[in-house]
Amino acid sequence: MSSALAAVNTWESVKDTGELRCGAAIAAPYVMKDPRSSEYSGFFVEMCREFAKHLGVDATFVDTNWDNLVAGVQSDRWDLAMALNETPERAKAVAFSEPVSNYEVSFLYNKGNPKLKDVASLNDLDKSNITIAVMSGTVQDKAVSEVMSNANIMRLPGMDETRLAVMSRRADVLADANDTNLLFHFANPDWSTILTPTPPLARQGVAFGLNKSTPEADIQELNEFINQKKEAGEIQQLIDEAAKTAAKQME
Fold it and tell me: Does domain 3-101+205-250 have CATH number 3.40.190.10?
């Protein structure tokens, strides 16, 4: 690899441009966008802002979706991909920071659904008369596809579409990240309930994705920043704040 290629997406080039570009695919409470103000929030958004401040630049958020988030890092459309689950497949395409938080898949459903009485395991959901809504291209999409052989999988482009599918009963179950499903449940406690499989399904770290050419020293600088935030308890504070914001947006 040439030195020119190795310099792509380094913090020095970020400082030269004066902005840290963060790829933003919506998934509360990691990354959220107010439909009225178009302002971004979420604990990964705040981490991007804080790291940009650490570098002495401004944070810029670039709209994308989960199908294109990795490709945008590879093609230098943004410097950091926010809230990427660490998978072996993705590790072939991008570099990862230290995990900012952890993830596993849970299943939210209407507790009044007659097809879903006495749900205790994934086997109770993997039936031919059950439809599971999931965001296309996500880790939960891949995980559900691997463990479900009988249920119908409804792949939709975003979080709003998957939630609406369950609320309108076009789908019976919503497969999503544990914390995002929990927020949805808090907003709809009268009808919703959650199955979190044991053992955990697709438990992974949730991290920043970077271009493969990013020098190790630059990744280490980001990792040290993340670990300092963890040790100070600041990441948990950001997660709590993001959860409150997300719950309000769901009201």
Answer: yes
Q: Given 1.25.40.10, 3.40.1390.30, 1.20.1250.20, 3.40.190.10, which CATH number is that of 103-202? A: 3.40.190.10
Q: How far apart are CA 175 and CA 156, in angstroms?
A: 11
SS3 208: strand
Q: Please give the helix or strand (H or E) that residue 104 lies within, else none.
A: strand 101-110
Q: What is the distance, to the nearest Å, from the Cα of residue 64 to the centroid of all Cα atoms in its chain?
A: 12
**What are 199-249's pLDDT values in tens digits?**
999 988 899 999 999 999 999 999 999 999 999 999 988 887 887 777 777
Beta bridge partners of 176: 106
Is residue 178 within 8 A of residue 103, CB to CB? The reply is yes
Positive or negative: CA dihedral 229, 232, 233, 237: negative
Integer-rounded Cα Rg, in Å, for the chain is: 19
